[in-house]
Write a structure and sequence with these properties.
Layout lengths: L5 E7 L32 E6 L7 H4 L2 E3 L19 E6 L2 E5 L5 E5 L5 E5 L30 E8 L5 E5 L5 H8 L17 E5 L7 E5 L14 H5 L7 E7 L5 H18 L8 E6 L15 H13 L4 E3 L8 H22 L1
Parallel strand pairs: 1-3, 2-4, 9-11, 9-12, 12-13, 13-14
Antiparallel strand pairs: 1-8, 2-7, 5-6, 5-8, 10-11
């Protein structure tokens, strides 16, 4: 299935039904007596979150949705039928914006969560309600209200406990393959990951948690360069970030530039992301797997970068996804941080 995380659609709520102007035929009643009923209300349009969906692909094929109109009022004061509500199923984490005004309509976050995006029109008023002592045979009605008509932009922001961030080829896809059952495309060229990938991680006796491998980040991403917002949008809801740096680069300066550049892009996009719990991880440290591999790694560059992190008092982990080195220690730390966040959240309620 193709992953689509944005879509633009038009929704039309149902119009209210007409109120009726009618008189019953009854002896000794002036003009037969009014008995025109009110029109029914038009159907609303809702978004509803569904865990079984992971993409907005369906909305690329159908872009217009209209709820049922209310029925016309009948004789004998019969109320018109209320229009059926139209419910559009979307993935959990979908956000809706009004295209014309740019305003946030709302978001749906969990299974069954509903959001009203277009309100149905109120039904018209029949002539029965206008009877009074001065006017026993009214013909007046009130017309129905037209249903709301909106152009909506849908954006999917994936909901994950942990987001893996890093430059292209930092080893994000390989890491998520090792720690979960997710199988993203992996290759030795930039931007292998073009769409976010979710994986469920089970480690020891802890509760399973969800990790998101998101597209790589390059300078200018906060302004939309490269995969830009396609990367950053999907880490907004993560609780913890794994900041992955390729430890096989030739110079310490390259690693430092990589590290600082990603933090700068996070700050430019949303400075609040820098306050989120973040675990720094140096990947591809394959020299630890055996002496025969040492000549393939620039150990001086790696040592220089590690000294830079120590100078900044930034704790870090060293891993090799290929040889599964340091993976258990990293997962232990993730579980510890997530557990602390859960306790903090519970205490704040």
């Amino acid at each position: 299935m193709k992953f689509i995380d944005t879509a633009e659609i038009k929704v039309k709520a149902g119009d209210g039904g007409l109120g009726m102007s009618h008189f019953r035929r009854e002896k000794y009643v002036p003009a037969g007596g009014p008995d025109g009923g009110n029109g029914g209300n038009g159907g609303d349009v809702y978004l509803e979150a569904t865990e079984g969906l992971s993409t907005l692909l369906d909305f690329r094929y159908q872009r217009y949705y209209e709820a049922e109109a209310g029925g016309k009022g009948g004789t004998n004061n019969r109320q018109g039928k209320t229009g059926e509500t139209l419910t559009l199923k979307v993935p959990c984490g979908t956000v809706a914006y009004d295209i014309e005004s740019g305003e946030l309509i709302g978001e749906v976050l969990y299974e069954g969560h509903r959001l009203l995006v277009a309100k149905g029109g109120k039904g018209g008023i029949g002539n029965t309600l206008f009877v009074n002592s001065r006017n026993q045979a009214p013909t007046k009605t009130i017309p129905p209200v037209i249903g709301e008509n909106r152009s909506i932009r849908l954006e999917l922001k994936m909901i994950a406990d942990v987001g893996i961030i890093g430059s292209p080829n930092a080893g994000k896809s390989t890491l998520i393959t090792v720690i979960s059952a997710a199988r993203p495309k992996v290759a030795d060229y930039p931007f292998t990951t073009l769409v976010p990938t979710l994986g469920v991680v089970s480690h020891k006796e802890a509760n399973p948690f969800v990790v998101a491998d998101v597209p790589g980040l390059i300078p200018g991403a906060s302004q939309g360069k490269g995969l830009g917002h396609d990367f950053l949008r999907h880490i907004e809801r993560t609780c913890v970030l794994i900041h992955l740096i390729d430890g096989s680069q030739e110079t310490a300066e390259a690693m430092i530039s990589d590290y600082d550049g990603i933090l700068e892009e996070l700050a430019l996009y949303d400075v609040a992301l820098l306050q989120r719990p973040r675990i720094t991880v140096i990947s591809k440290v394959d020299s630890l797997a055996g002496e025969e591999l040492e000549e393939n790694n620039n150990l001086d560059a790696l040592i220089g970068f590690k000294n830079y992190l120590k100078l900044k008092k930034t704790p870090f982990f060293e891993i090799s996804s290929a040889f599964r080195i340091g993976i258990n220690e990293l997962l232990d730390k993730l579980i510890e941080v997530l557990s602390e966040l859960k306790k903090t959240g519970e205490n704040s309620k």
